[in-house]
Structure formats: C-alpha cells, structure tokens
Design goal:
4 copies of one chain form a homotetramer. Chain A is of the alpha/beta class and 367 residues long. In chain A, the strands form 3 sheets. A 7-stranded mixed sheet of chain A has the order 3-2-1-6-7-12-13, sandwiched between helices. Chain A has a 4-stranded parallel sheet with strand order 9-10-8-11, with helices on both faces. In chain A, a hairpin with a 2-residue loop joins β4 and β5. Chains in contact: A-B, A-D, B-C, C-D. Chains A and D meet through α1, α6, α7, α10 and α12 of A and α1, α6, α7, α10 and α12 of D.
Chain lengths: 367, 367, 367, 367
C-alpha cells in the first residue's frame, strides 16, 4: 500500500483549535509546492470533516496572497470529526463509526499523492493511523498553542499567545497599582504551564501557578502579605487554567482544544481569587484571557517558524519521508516519526533553568 | 466662605475607577501650575481617602517626568471613601459619618488654595458638595471610561478602551471564521452603550446589544440564521454589560466604577450565549474583556484630551472659576458648573446618526 | 444635463495618496448600496486612470468582506491621471489632453447613475468639474491624512497617522534618554502641522515645528540648552515636513500626495538637526517617518468615521444631493457643496486652544 | 591579582548602542543580587564614562520597580569612553590615554567585588582587558541588536527589532499594493543580515538583500519584472544597511553601534531604489527604519532572555566564574570565556535552512 509513486498533487488540511500561524503554514505549503516542485495543491475544509465529506478546493498562489499576517486558517478547522470514530445518527441514536475508507476514496478522487496534516495531538494521531492503517502518504506539521509537544523545541502560535498574555499583564499592572488590588490573569495551559510561566516572567508577576507545580494557597497568601508588608500595595498572579492545589484536582470546565472529546472549562482563576481575597482582605479581580490568546496577527517568530514548517513539510513529501512530522531542533528544521511525536507532553521542568530564574527574581509558585 | 485669595498652592486627587489618561492629566496640572503660574502642587493619595487621612506629597516636575504614556494614576485611586458618608467601626458596628471637616482641616494644614478633583460622577458630586457646603475652591476634571457624561463631548480613556475592544473583536474574528462559531464579546457600559456601539461598528460586528435598545433574543437569533443562510458561517456579537432584553432587567453583578456603592457584575454575555447556542445550534463562545479595558498605554487622542483638561483645570483655578468643571465642546475646552455636570447621563441616541449608520451596514441591535 | 433619474447603479473610485480607512469607506458604500437600497456597485481601478481606461469590476458584499481593518484600498489609487489634463505621447512629445468625454462614455457603458469619489483636494476638484462641466452625478468623500480640509471637523486616516507618529516618539524617547541625545522626528504636514502638533503633545515632545509658526533656530537651541541646564539630558523635536524658518522657504523635495503635480521631498529634519548639533554640541539624530504614516491597521475612530462617510455618501446619492461632499460636523455627518469644500485649507490656529495648551506644558514652537 | 574574596557588593554598567531589554537585565541583576544573595549593587552611569569619572549610584529594588517593560537603560549608555584609550585635550590637542587605573580606583572606592558589564563587542572587549590586565572580577552580558554574536544562540533586543521591522513591512505592504509601487525598507545589519532576512520572511518580502550574499542589481530588477509579468503590481524589498553589490563596497555612512569608532551611515536603500526605478520604470519609495528599531517595549521573548541573562550573570559572579559571559545554548543559560565570545561574528549561513526556506517560498536574494 505504501508504494511511493511520483508526487504530483498534494492535499492539505488544518485540524484542532485555531492558532496564529496556520495561514502562514498553508501559504508556505502552497508556494513551495507550486514554485519549487511544480505540484498542485488541494485544500480540505474544516479539518477531517472536509476529508470525509469531500469538501475541497484547489489552492493557487492567488489564494494564499496576503494571508501571511492573518490569524486563523483560510481552510477552516474543527476539533471534531475523527474518521476512525465518526458520529452519526442511526435509528435516532448517536453512534460512532469508522469512515476512514471514505477518506481514502476522497483522496483518490482528487488524485492526491500525499497529504499534509497541520494539527495537534489529536489530528496527528489520526494522521499516524491513516498512514499506518490506510497506507496514506501522510506528513505532519505540529500545532499546539500550549507549546507542550515533546518532539519539537517550539511550536508556532505560542509566541503570539505569549505576547498577548504579556500585554494583558502590562494592562492589569496599571490597574493593580492604581487601585492597590490583587489582579489575577487566567491563561491557557491545561497540562503544561508554559504560557503562564513565560508571560509571568515577562510581565513581572509576583505569583505564577502552573499544573506542573501544585500550589498551596497559604503560600500564595503569604507571598502577597509579605509584599504588602514591604510597602508594595498590589500583586499580580498568573494562573494556568490547569493549575491545581497540592492534592487537589484540575477544575477546567470546557476548553476548546484538539482533543476530539468534550472537556470542562474555567474556574481556577475565580477559585484562587476568592481564597486570596479572604486570606488577605485585599480587593481581588480576575480576568480570563480565553479566546483572545488564539487570535491576532502572528508575531515575526511565529510567521517564520510556520513558514519553515510549511516548506519543510513539502520537502519531507518530496523526500518520501511519510509518516513523519517536521520539528524544530534549534536552529534546524528536522523530522521525527509521527509515532514518536504524539502522546508525550513537554512539561515545564520543575527544577529547570527558567523556573529557577523566576524564583531568583522573587516569583512564588505557591510551593 | 468663598473669599478668593491669591492662589499659590493647589491640591490634586484622582477618584473612582482607573482610566487611561489619568497620569496625563496629573502631568499637565503639575507642569502648567509650576511653569506657567509658579504655583506649588500637593497630590493626595488614593482619592478622597488621602484627603481624609492626610496622605499627601509634594508633586514636582520630576515626579511627572515620563508618566504621559502610562496607564493608571501615580496618585492611586479608589471608589470608596466619601467624606460625607465615611465608613467607621464604632462599638463593633459599621456606621457612616460625615468627616468633611477633616478634609477642610487637611486642606488648611497644607496651605492649599484650590483643589482639582479628577473623577467620575461620584467624585464630582462630592466635589460639588465640598464647594457648596464647605466653601472649598474646587475645580473638576471629568473622568468616565464609558463616555456617558452629558456635559462634555468626550471623556479621556474612552478612545483607549474603544481601541482595546476593537482589537479584541479583530482577534475573535479569525477564531470565529476558522471555527464557524458565534463569538460574543462583553464590554463595559452599564447605562450607556458607547463602547459596544463604536467597537462593534469598528470591528465589523453583526449584532450589537446596548442598554439603550432593549433586545429581543429571537431577533438576534434570526440575524445569525440569516447570515448562515447566506453562506456566512460565523457571527460576531458585542454586548454591553448593561444590555437587557425587552421588558427584562440588567444582570450586572459587580462592577468597579465610580459609584461609592457595591454593585453586581457579569453574566449578560453568558446569558445571551446560551440562548444563541440553543436557538441556532451553533457553537458559541464568550469573552469578557473586563479590566483589560481600563489598562494600557493611552491613545494619542486620550493623551491630548487629558493634557488639555489638566491645563484647562489650572486655568480655571487661576480665573477663579470654582465649582466648575472643564469640558470639551469640539474643538474648544470650556467649562460648566459642577452642579450641571453631574447626574445626567449621555446615552446613545437611539435614532441618531451612528445607530442609523450601523443599521445601514447591516448590523442588528436585536430590536 | 442634471436630470436625476432613479439611481440603480453607482460607481466608486479612490484617488490620491494612500490613507488608512479607504477600504472601510468602500465597504460601507457597497454594504449600504446593496443592503439598504438594492443598488449595484461598480469599482474603478487606480483612481481616475481606471475611469479613463475603463478598468472596472462589479463589487459585491463578498468583495468587501474582511477589509474593514485593512489599510490601503482594494481598488488601487494614484495621484496622476487627471481626465481634464491627461498625459499622452503624441509624435514623441508628452502633451496633456482633455479626455473627460471618455469618462462620460465609460460611465454610460456601465450604466452608472452616480459616482462616488473618495479623494483629496485634487480628486475632489476633478469631481467638481465632472459634475459642473460634464453633468455627472458626483458625490465626494474627503480624504487627507494631513487633516487639513476646512470643510470637515476631521478626516479619516489622520487618527491612525497620529497614533503611528506618537508611537514613534515613544520609541525615540527611550533612545534619547539612554544616550542623552536630541532626537528629531520628521512627520507629514506640508501646509498644516496637525500631525506634528498633536503627536508632539501626545508624545511629550520638547519642541514642535510646524508650517503655521515659522521658527527661529536660536529659539530651538535655547530651549534645548535650557533643558540641559535643568539636568534634562535629552530633547525630543517633532518637525512637520513643511516647517520653515522665519523668512525662509519650505524645503520639501518630493511628497506623494493628492496633487497631480510633481513636488519635492525631504530635508527639513536634517537641516534642523545639523543646526541643533552645531548649536548645542549634543549628538542629534533624525528619523523620517515617511510612508509608515500611511500604512497600518486603521484605528477604531478612523474605521467608524470612514464607515459613516461611506454610508453617508450613498445617502447623499439617494437624496439626489449631487455635487456635494460628506463632512463631519461633530457629532453629525452633514454635507457641503464640493465647490466650497476644496481649495481652502484648515491650518493650525496659531493662537488656538491646542497651541496654547502645548505652550502651557512647556513645549517650544521656536517662536 | 585574581584572589577571589567573598562577594558582597557588585557593580553594573551598560555600554554601546541602546537595545530593548537592557532595563530587564538591570532589574534581574538587582533583584537576584539583593533577594537571592543579599548583595548590594552599584550602577555606573553612561557606560565606561561613569566608571572613569566615578558617576555612580546605589541601586535598590525600588529603583528597578516597573522598568521591565521599558525600552532603553536607566543607567544611560554610550559608545564612547574606552578606558584604555580615553580622549583628552592636552595642550589643545586631542590625544588618547590609558586611564584604566582610574577604573580600578573607582571600583575600590565603592568597595565593589565584581563588575557586570552589559554590552556589545566593544564593551566586552574592554571587559576582557579589565579582567586580564587589571585583575577586575568581570562578568559579561552580551548585547547586540543585530544578533550577530557567535557565542550565543540569540541576543536580547533582536526579537523586538525584528517585530518592529516586520510591522513596518506590514504597513508598507498596503501602500505598495494600493499604489502599485516598489517599496524598499532599509533595516539595521552592518555585517550580518539577520534582521533583514527574518523580517523579510515574516513580512512576505519579494527581495532581501544582506551583507552575506552580495547582490547583482540585474537579478533584483529581473525578479520585480517577473512579478509584474505575473500580474503582481507591487514588490517589497528589504535591504540590510550593510548589503553590497557583487564586487562592490558597503555604503554605510554613520551608524550608532558599540564600536567606539566613528563610522559612516545610510544610503544603500536609496542607491538600490534609483537603480530599480530606472530598471523597471516603476515608482519606487524608500523608508529607512533607523532608530525606531532600538526603541519600544521589549517583546516577551526579549524580556525573558534579558531576565535570564541578568540572573545568570549574578550566578556566575557567585560561582567565581570571572572573565566569562552568559550565553544561551537553547534551552539553557550557559557561560563562555569573554576571550572566546568577542571578535567572531555569527553571520547568516548562506546555504543554511533559513535562506533555503526563503528561496523556496520565492524570495530573491539578488544572487
């Protein structure tokens, strides 16, 4: 099934949660395919949904003109529609069916020789199975705004989200200072606390709570009171949505991610706020940054990394390296098997350089 | 009591909610007082609290160097501490007392000849009473981020908040488009919907809900379904926190404003979201912009208006126009009596130019 | 000739220099025309060039989707191609001919009943002549990034340029401070100094030089030395490109504007810099902001004003008010005859509120 | 001479050109020294000038509060004042003298045990000599906005400059497109073209000219004409100030860098523009970004790297690793001897990944 014929036509789709830089990847895929290798390109709409329902369109250079600085994805995306477990209503009942044969069929209808999947853990796992079980010539491009993929040094979208969160802290800073309040910012990061950690350092936070370091609320309160005793009348706290107290549970209620499963979202910021207000007697306010972290004009770094990924993915296709995924091993773009890439999270090293730096400039992690 | 002696020394304070441009006003007051009129300036800390408890400091040009582009107020502010109704614990009971004599005393201790109060409706009402009842030579500078003061064409801080809200809509746009969702942005505006209205037009929203135009949820749902039927797979809805359904009540839970009274905040965005999700079957997400609207670097417009207000307030002092407040009557800085200035809100004219423009480009107000 | 038939189809073009908000006007014209009045819309490419050479395309709502926050104009623009004096090569010689009959012909070919011209002084003058001499049913939308049109309170694009200039001053501030230098920023403003004046106040400049107030270099040097004597080790100077010394000439060399004539640009910033460096002995550096002032994402204010103008222009068409131009008379959108609108510049009032405010906070105009 | 006593008090200075993140380094040095190690800190003003003339002040946590997001350096900086070759006027003649003994003396007067030098190649070379020849316990922090230091993966300030340049390209894009012009952006990069290369990729430039790849103007013109023939009516060209034609010379006239020597600046952008305008007949405009690249609020990345460097430098001091410099070996902060760190430039690899990526998406380097 994996007989590699000459590649003349490739498909591309974006899956999972929205992320700044997706358009830059699509643009680089299209430009490299057409200019460098004289290939044609088909884009599937709305992730695997388009692949299953055969919603597709030809992508030319004109289609990708001007999209480099735009957030989102011109192809649409979704975190539903797994072809190996596709929801249907049969006899009035919602059931899940394997419709992966339809995917193969649609790939053949379009005469596509290779498929580039831009997505997170969920999408890349599907990609891996399409490669292994269905023999599709798949190449992956990793996407996770949380930057929690172990197989690559960094993922695009993270730098933009990080700057959005840092600007939010800058804005809360003046309010905190003027009103002598504790201001809490809740940011993304279900399992890995990178956005909270890095925006907290960049924004000059006093407390950072991340999933990797379970916190004790007394320690947090102690830090804020210590600051007050030193004459500092306000404090800034950055909380990852997946932060949890020592011995406690995560309180995420609903989060839009590349999970193909409903999950729960929100709440940790509020929970921490009540405890701080009670424990310190200081006015405490919460801001949940939410979807703003996924939007906006990508930073220069994200545009460059996304461009390198897109170009790299086409190069992998032309080298016949199917079942692999592009990755960054600073300063080079390399590749790893999808099988290795998915599944393992890149968590914040609890005793690593960055946490140590944060502690040395006086930031508390509540531990 | 209102014998006007030669002014040699003025006081200044900021009261009520944080607002971009407060520092620019303070800077202009200090520079104009010192450079133009050879006065000295005393700043009171944390609004009327500092005036009651005599927390004050001399302000020199060095103190205001570099603060023009900074959000917040170097003097601190609060929306508590009304000198005519000041909370105290007496015999274990919280009671409210008139401590306005202490204010007069502290003004005399510092040898202050005139007091500039930068604040919203609450603070300016106190200013009016200090002028009328206590004979203090008060001049006011209006501050309301909601831009809802009838006595002036525009207030500083509004333009910055408007741009922050517009940028947020820009960010939500790409996510809405990529995921085919309804995205809701809840912005400030308890009684007047200016921020929602103007950011909605600037951001290209499809629906805008404001307090002045009670909405019917069926109309909102109708609009979104109409768009979907035209092939537009997403919609953007901007909701002022004070928006309310026809015949319904405002659902604000707690809002930090210049009210000197606790109020309730949040929720209208979520309420509308549930109804839209149910009514359209489309994924709907809410972002509450909250405190981010009060922070950040002031826009050029706000810095200029704030500077003109600050300079204008000192000019009023020197002209002996006490009990008055600076205001903008485009393109001039003028003044009005505090008695006229407070109390009356500048609401969005329901049949005015701007609402009509919005409707003509296809925006629904749910009416 | 001015027999008004029922309007069913309108044309639109953009002329003169690029300006943030042009796309927002086009979008509002198209949306209002189609949604509100069921008209169809034709867009001419590259200003009057497209009207002469009949380069045109139908504009639908899909064409204007997503262009609200984008700088530039999807129609293209140019500051050449006056139909009453159109350059041609005849017998190897460049000559200028009246080709306005071709314009009328093309208007008729497309079945256009009214033409909306978005442009500056040059374009609107042509519009006036097409209305007066050729009987075309013309409506104008004023565009000048310099904000120097007497017939309207403000023009779109100015607020964006002002914020770009102010951010540039903010950036130069830190360099000036760190290196103890005099930093000069040269901004647009050939005849009117609005951008220099307002960005100078907003950015906290020490000296502002504008065309309306001829400067004496000794006064500028004096101000900088006075600051140094007060221990302030740097100074910021904002210079409008049209600033000139008392009794001297403007030194603009080439400037891209809506002039339909070649002009000269640059140099005043450098001229002033050499004199300051010589007169004070301080390191002095110049930044010419140039084209950056015309680009970028329009501010909320500019998007709203542009939208109101676009909608207002279509309303004028439907009211049969030809030969008129939309204008802002705060807070209303009104109209004035094109004949009144063009020709007279709105200069900075030398003794007005704003200049006085600037002087009161210590800014020197070199006078 | 290098007898290491217990460190109780450290000095810090910033040398060379202004760079976003300098304040973040100073803040981290002060916080880490005081909080983590109970040291005291002395700041010298204006680079080595302050060390020679003994202009110094104690730095406390209060001094560094709020400076994290601010560009520039609170200590001041200069690219003059080499203590081993210090300019003096003797008998009316300007001569250069070794005054390094004064440096040692001042270090002793303040009881300083170790000196942290934050600077570029010039400053670090002086640091190396103070360590080697004078036995001062020096630790270095590398600073170069051009990112051209071989000893570290990245330097702070570069990411901010890169984003400033990318935003400028975004702004020029709309003007180029609207006017069908060639727009040229001249950016920093005397010897290494990193800013031009990366901003060019991020901004979607069509041509990038860097010092490492001498260009042939015919190739540049060819590329622009090729685009025009494909219907693309504009082109964007990014030029590093040090770019030069094949066989030609660099034309920099005066550049403010860490050189301790006067150099020449400007001109390559204009030179290329004339040739393009002549060769293509298209309107061509130049923007020189200049000092704007050094200013502004540092990006999150730069604030974090600067914080890690500052903390890392104090850690080096406490570990007794004198004569060394902190560096980034992704993802770790490490150190290298100053002797290795200076002198060798990190140039753009002409056949590296990034240049190849750029070529694959269709960017020409004029080679």
């Amino acid at each position: 099934m994996t007989i590699k014929k000459t590649v003349r036509r490739i498909g591309v789709l974006t899956g999972g949660g929205d992320c700044p830089g997706l358009n830059a990847v699509i643009r680089a895929v299209v430009k490299t395919a057409i200019r460098e290798y004289r290939l044609s390109v088909v884009g599937f709409e709305n992730g695997f949904g388009g692949l299953i329902q055969n919603r597709a369109r030809e992508l030319t250079e004109a289609d990708v003109a001007g999209i480099l600085p735009r957030g989102g994805t011109i192809l649409g995306t979704t975190n539903r529609d797994n072809p190996f477990s596709y929801p249907m209503i049969i006899n009035g009942q919602k059931v899940f069916r394997d419709v992966s044969d339809r995917v193969v069929e649609n790939i053949n209808i379009h005469g596509i020789d290779a498929l580039i999947i831009i997505g997170g853990d969920g999408s890349l796992t599907i990609g891996k199975e399409l490669f292994e079980k269905k023999g599709l010539q798949v190449v992956g491009v990793p996407k996770t705004i949380d930057n929690d993929l172990s197989a690559t040094d960094q993922t695009f979208g993270f730098d933009t989200a990080l700057n959005t969160a840092t600007e939010a802290i800058d804005k809360l800073h003046t309010t905190a200072e003027s009103h002598h309040r504790v201001m809490i910012l809740e940011v993304m990061g279900r399992y890995a606390g990178w956005i909270a950690l890095e925006s907290g350092i960049a924004g000059g936070a006093d407390v950072i709570l991340i999933p990797e370091i379970p916190y004790r609320i007394e320690k947090v309160i102690e830090k804020i009171i210590e600051r007050r005793n030193l004459g500092k009348k306000f404090s800034l706290v950055v909380v990852a949505e997946g932060a949890k107290p020592l011995g406690g549970e995560m309180v995420i209620q609903r989060r839009v991610e590349d999970s193909f499963e409903p999950i729960r979202l929100g709440g940790i910021g509020n929970a921490v706020a009540s405890q701080i207000e009670e424990g310190t007697g200081m006015e405490t306010r919460v801001t949940v940054l939410g979807h703003l972290q996924r939007g906006g004009i990508p930073t220069a770094f994200d545009r460059i990394l996304a461009t390198r990924y897109g170009t790299g993915a086409v190069n992998l296709v032309m080298a016949g390296k199917f079942g692999e995924m592009v990755c960054l091993r600073t300063p080079h773009i390399m590749s790893v098997p999808l099988a290795e890439a998915v599944g393992e999270l890149r968590l914040v090293p609890v005793d690593g350089d960055i946490v140590r730096t944060a502690k040395q400039v006086g930031i508390s992690f509540g531990d």
